[in-house]
Amino acid sequence: MNQVFFKNENINWERIDGGIQRKIFGYDNRIMMVIVDFKKGAIGAKHKHHHSQSTFIQKGVFEVTVGENKDTLKEGDGFFVSSDSEHGVLALEDGILIDVFSPAREDFIK
């Protein structure tokens, strides 16, 4: 992706399942930022991938599981997922996560 600047109104939401949608805000082969919107009750099912992930909670409250660890996190909090660690979230209210992946999630690129 060669863009330098990203304007929210110019990026379309990609609908996922069950009240989840995302926007990809920028990436190269080493890093990717993704905004993920969750409706209350939406589940980011437990999964794992080879990418490292750092997530900031921009809005809402989430029950977050990373490996054997579980906590309730709110706006302004965040979490880190190391490579191949199982993780998932439950949106306890409408919310937005900002995910940063390294390397980029090639499976998100069409």
Can you describe this structure?
Strands 1-2-3-10-5-8 form a six-stranded antiparallel β-sheet, with no helix packed on it. It has a domain at 13-41 and 72-100. The protein has no helices and ten strands. The chain has strands at 14-15, 20-27, 32-38, 43-47, 52-59, 61-66, 69-74, 78-81, 87-91, 95-102.
Residue fraction in strands: over 45%
Adjacency order of strands in the biggest sheet: 1-2-3-10-5-8
Oligomer: single chain
How much helicity do the residues have? under 10%
Shape: globular
Stretches where pLDDT falls below 50 for ≥5 residues? none
Biggest pleated-sheet summary? 6 strands, antiparallel
In brief, what are we looking at here?
The protein has 110 residues and is an all-beta fold. Helix content is 0%, strand content 54%.
